[in-house]
Design goal:
The structure holds 2 protein chains of 2 kinds. Chain A has helices at residues 6-30, 46-56, 58-76, 101-113, 145-159, 183-188, 305-315, 329-336, 353-378, and strands spanning 2-3, 33-35, 78-79, 85-92, 116-120, 125-127, 165-172, 195-198, 211-215, 228-241, 246-257, 266-271, 276-283, 286-291. By secondary structure, chain A is α/β, with parallel strands linked by helices. In chain A, helix 1 runs antiparallel to helix 2, helix 1 (6-30) packs antiparallel against helix 3 (58-76) and helix 3 (58-76) packs antiparallel against helix 9 (353-378). In chain B, a hairpin with a 7-residue loop joins strand 5 (123-128) and strand 6 (136-141). Chain B has helices spanning 4-12, 60-66, 100-118, 145-155, 165-171, 191-200, 213-216, 239-262, 276-285; strands at residues 29-38, 45-48, 70-78, 82-87, 123-128, 136-141, 176-181, 204-211, 224-227, 234-236, 266-271. Classes of the chains: A alpha/beta, B alpha/beta. Chains A and B meet through helix 1, strand 2 and helix 2 of A and strand 9, strand 10 and helix 8 of B. Strand 2 of chain A pairs parallel with strand 9 of chain B.
C-alpha cells in the first residue's frame, strides 16, 4: 500500500504527538496529589474535575489519537500500489498532418499498445486504445501541444491507479506553430522522457514554389480592411527583429497594426520594442507579406548581410509561412528527453475509495468523543494511583 | 547499627545533656536534682530524727552537742526515664519518594535519646503503628547501645495506615514523654488532654510536631490534592485554594500549640528540612 499524499499522515502524527504531550502534561498537572494536609485546602470545583477528566483520561486520549490518525490517513489517500507500465498516446489529428500509410501504421501500432489515446487538433478527444481514431481531420491546421499535454497530465493521474508508471507517446509533425510559450514548462511537468514519432505534415504545396507578394511601408493592397493605420506621432526606431535576421538602422515608424488581426495573418517581424512590424499569410499558393516599415534610404544599411538575408528571406518562393515549418531534430530530441529539473506538479486532490471509508470512520469516532466524555464525566472521579 | 549520617548527628550533639525542666520526684539516683531531700553525704540541712529513719544518718556530733537526734539531709540526684513515642501513620511517610518526614522523625528521636542518655537518663522508644503491625518497643536503657537499637528499630518501620496515638501515649510510664508526630490523626485534639494528666502527676511531656516544608508551602506544580483517608475527595490548589490552605493550616498549627501548652506540655515544630542537631538543641533548650 502506498500513500498519495504522505505529508498529511506526517502532519497527523505530529498532531497526535502533541495530543499525547498535552495529555501527559495535563495528567501530571491535574492528577490529585495525595497530600497529608489536604483537608486544609478547599474542595475542588466541578470544572477542575471536568478539565482533568477531559485531558487526563486514557480512553479519551486513545479515542482522540484514533480520530487524528484516521483523518491524517484519510487525507493521505492510501491505495494499493499498482505495478507495470501504462501507455498514453497523443495523436495529432489536425488537418496539418498527412494521412499517409506511415501515419496509419504508427497510429495502429500505438493505439494497439496504448491504454489511452488522446486525439488532438481541435478539442482533445479520448479514443479507445483498441480502435483506430477517426481518420477525418480535425478542424485546426496545427495541433497545439500545450492543451493536450495538460490533458495528458490529468490522464496520467488516472492511469497511475492502474500502473506504477505511465509512458507517453506523441505522434505529430511537430510544426513550430504547435509550440507556444508555455509548452516547454508544461512538458517539464511530465516526469521522464517522452517518445516522439514525427509524421509528415499535410502540405500539398510543399514541393512547389509560391507566388510571393511583398507590400512595403503600410501598403494596403490585397486586403479588404486597412491593415496598417498611420501613427498620430511617428517615432524613430533603431531596429526590426525577424526570425532570419535583426535589422539595425535608423527606421522611422509611421504605421501601427490595426486590431484585431485577421485569423489567417501571422506576425513575422517585430520592432525592437515588441510591436509587430510585419505580417503575412498563405492563401491559394500565394504568400503575401505586409511590412510596416520602409527600407532606410540613407547610408549603406541595405548593403549589410543582415539586410540582404532578410530580403532574400522575404522573396524566397520556397519558404513556408512562419510556424508551418517543423522543428529541428535536435530541438525535438531536447523536447523528448527527460527534463533536467522536474517541476513539481500542481497538487490536485484525489480521493481514493479507502480514504472515504477512513474518513467516515473518523467522523463516527468524532461523534462518539463527546458521548464518551459525557459518560466519563458522570462517573465518580478516579482514585489516585499512589497511596502511601 | 548507626549509619554515617546518624553518626554525624550524634557527634554534633556530643556533650548535650537534656536537663529536666522542673526537678522530678526522686526515684532513682541520677543527674537531675530531685524535688525530695534525702539523707546523703552532701549536707543540705538537718531535721529531727523520726521513727523509721536509718540510724546511720543520725548526726552524732550534733547529738553530742545538743542531746537531740537530727539526721543529715542532702539534695538528692534522680534519674529521669525518657520514653519517645513515634507516630508511624501513613502521613508520616510523606513524601512517598523521600520519606522526608519519617527520616526527620528518626533523626530527632535519635538526637533526643542521645541528649537524654548523656544526662544519665534511661531512654526507650515506642513506635505507634497501625493495627496488625508487630509491636515496636524498646525498654528504656542508659547504655550507649540503646542508640543503635533505636536506629535499627526505626529502619525496620514503614509508616502506613491510620494510627491512634492516644492509647500508646496513655500506656507510657516514663518520667519524660516525647511524642513525635504530625498530629494529623483524628485523636490529635485528645492528646494534649492525656498529656495534662501526665503533667498533673509531675511528668514532663514534649510534643514534637513534624511538618514537611511542602506542607507549609505546597509546590506550584500541585494543582489538586486528595486526602490520604478519602482519596475520592479532590481539593483544589489554585491561587485561591492555595491561599486558603495556608491560612487554615497556619491557624490549625497555632491552635494545636496552644492546646499542648495549655496542658503544660512543651510544644515544638520541626520541619523536615531543618538540621536535626539544631532542632534537637532547640527542643532541649525548651524553645518552640
Amino acid at each position: 500500500m502506498s500513500l498519495l499524499y504522505p505529508v498529511f499522515l506526517w502532519a497527523a502524527a505530529g498532531i497526535a504527538a502533541m495530543v499525547v504531550g498535552l495529555h501527559m502534561l495535563s495528567r501530571r498537572l491535574r492528577r490529585p496529589t495525595p497530600f497529608p494536609t489536604a483537608r486544609f485546602a478547599p474542595p475542588a470545583h466541578a470544572q477542575a474535575t471536568e478539565i482533568r477528566l477531559q485531558l487526563g483520561d486514557w480512553r479519551l486520549m486513545f479515542l482522540r489519537l484514533a480520530i487524528v490518525l484516521l483523518l491524517g490517513l484519510a487525507f493521505a489517500q492510501p491505495r494499493w500500489a499498482p505495478e507495470g507500465v501504462a501507455r498514453l498516446a497523443l495523436i495529432d489529428g489536425s488537418s496539418g498532418v498527412a494521412r499517409d500509410e506511415a501515419w496509419r501504421d504508427a497510429l495502429r501500432r500505438t493505439t494497439r499498445e496504448a491504454d489511452a489515446v488522446l486525439l488532438y487538433g481541435g478539442a482533445p478527444q479520448v479514443a479507445d486504445g483498441d480502435s483506430i481514431p477517426d481518420e477525418a481531420p480535425l478542424p485546426e491546421a496545427v495541433g497545439l501541444l500545450s492543451p493536450v499535454l495538460i490533458e495528458a497530465l490529468r490522464h496520467r493521474q488516472h492511469l497511475l491507479d492502474r500502473a506504477e508508471t505511465v509512458e507517453l507517446t506523441i505522434i505529430s509533425p511537430f510544426r513550430l506553430a504547435a509550440f507556444d510559450a508555455a509548452t516547454l514548462e508544461i512538458r517539464a511537468l511530465w516526469p521522464g522522457p517522452i517518445e516522439v514519432l514525427r509524421v509528415l505534415p499535410a502540405d500539398p504545396d510543399a514541393q512547389s514554389a509560391l507566388k510571393v507578394d511583398v507590400y512595403w511601408a503600410g501598403e494596403k493592397k490585397g486586403l479588404e480592411a486597412p491593415l496598417w493605420l498611420p501613427r498620430p506621432e511617428p517615432d524613430a526606431q533603431s531596429g526590426v527583429y525577424a526570425p532570419i535576421a535583426t535589422l539595425i538602422a535608423p527606421f522611422e515608424r509611421n504605421w501601427r497594426l490595426a486590431q484585431p488581426l485577421p485569423d489567417d495573418l501571422q506576425v513575422v517581424a517585430w520592432w525592437l520594442d515588441g510591436e509587430p512590424a510585419a505580417v503575412e499569410r498563405l492563401r491559394d499558393g500565394r504568400r503575401e507579406t505586409w511590412l510596416g516599415f520602409a527600407m532606410p534610404e540613407d547610408g549603406d544599411a541595405v548593403l549589410r548581410p543582415s539586410f540582404r538575408r532578410f530580403l532574400d528571406w522575404l522573396e524566397d518562393p520556397w519558404r513556408r509561412p512562419f510556424g508551418m515549418a517543423q522543428i529541428s531534430d535536435e530541438d525535438l530530441r531536447a523536447f523528448a528527453a527527460a527534463p533536467a529539473q522536474q517541476i513539481p506538479a500542481p497538487i490536485a486532490m484525489r480521493v481514493t475509495p479507502l480514504a472515504l471509508w477512513l474518513l467516515a470512520l473518523a467522523i463516527l469516532l468524532l461523534l462518539l468523543e463527546p458521548l464518551l466524555r459525557r459518560r466519563l464525566a458522570d462517573r465518580p472521579a478516579e482514585a489516585p494511583e499512589a497511596k502511601p | 547499627m548507626i549509619n554515617p549520617e546518624d553518626g554525624r548527628l550524634l557527634e554534633a550533639l556530643r556533650g548535650l545533656r537534656w536537663r529536666a525542666r522542673r526537678p522530678p520526684a526522686r526515684l532513682v539516683a541520677g543527674a537531675h536534682s530531685s524535688r525530695d531531700l534525702a539523707p546523703a553525704a552532701e549536707l543540705a540541712e538537718r531535721r529531727a530524727w523520726r521513727q523509721g529513719d536509718e540510724a546511720r544518718r543520725i548526726d552524732w556530733k550534733l547529738l553530742a552537742r545538743t542531746d537531740r537526734a537530727f539526721i543529715r539531709l542532702a539534695q538528692d540526684q534522680s534519674r529521669m526515664t525518657t520514653m519517645i513515642l513515634l507516630d508511624a501513620s501513613a502521613s508520616m511517610g510523606w513524601p512517598v519518594e523521600t520519606l522526608a518526614k519519617w527520616r526527620q522523625t528518626g533523626r530527632i528521636a535519635l538526637g533526643l535519646a542521645e541528649a537524654a542518655r548523656q544526662a544519665g537518663d534511661p531512654v526507650g522508644a515506642t513506635v505507634a503503628q497501625a493495627t496488625g503491625s508487630a509491636p515496636a518497643f524498646l525498654r528504656p536503657s542508659d547504655q550507649i547501645a540503646i542508640l543503635a537499637r533505636i536506629a535499627g528499630l526505626l529502619r525496620g518501620v514503614a509508616p502506613s495506615g491510620v494510627v491512634d496515638l492516644a492509647p500508646f501515649l496513655a500506656a507510657c510510664g516514663a518520667q519524660r514523654l516525647v511524642v513525635i508526630s504530625d498530629f494529623l490523626g483524628d485523636e490529635a485534639e485528645r492528646l494534649p488532654a492525656i498529656a495534662g494528666q501526665f503533667r498533673a502527676i509531675g511528668r514532663e511531656v514534649h510534643a514534637i510536631h513534624i511538618v514537611d516544608e511542602a506542607e507549609l508551602d505546597p509546590p506550584a506544580s500541585i494543582v489538586a490534592l486528595s486526602d490520604f483517608r478519602d482519596p475520592q475527595a479532590v481539593r483544589s490548589m489554585d491561587a485561591r485554594g492555595r491561599a486558603e490552605y495556608r491560612r487554615r493550616f497556619g491557624e490549625w498549627r497555632t491552635h494545636l500549640a496552644k492546646l499542648w501548652r495549655r496542658q503544660g506540655a512543651h510544644y515544638a515544630m520541626v520541619t523536615s528540612g531543618e538540621p536535626a542537631d539544631v532542632a534537637v538543641r532547640r527542643i532541649v533548650r525548651g524553645e518552640a
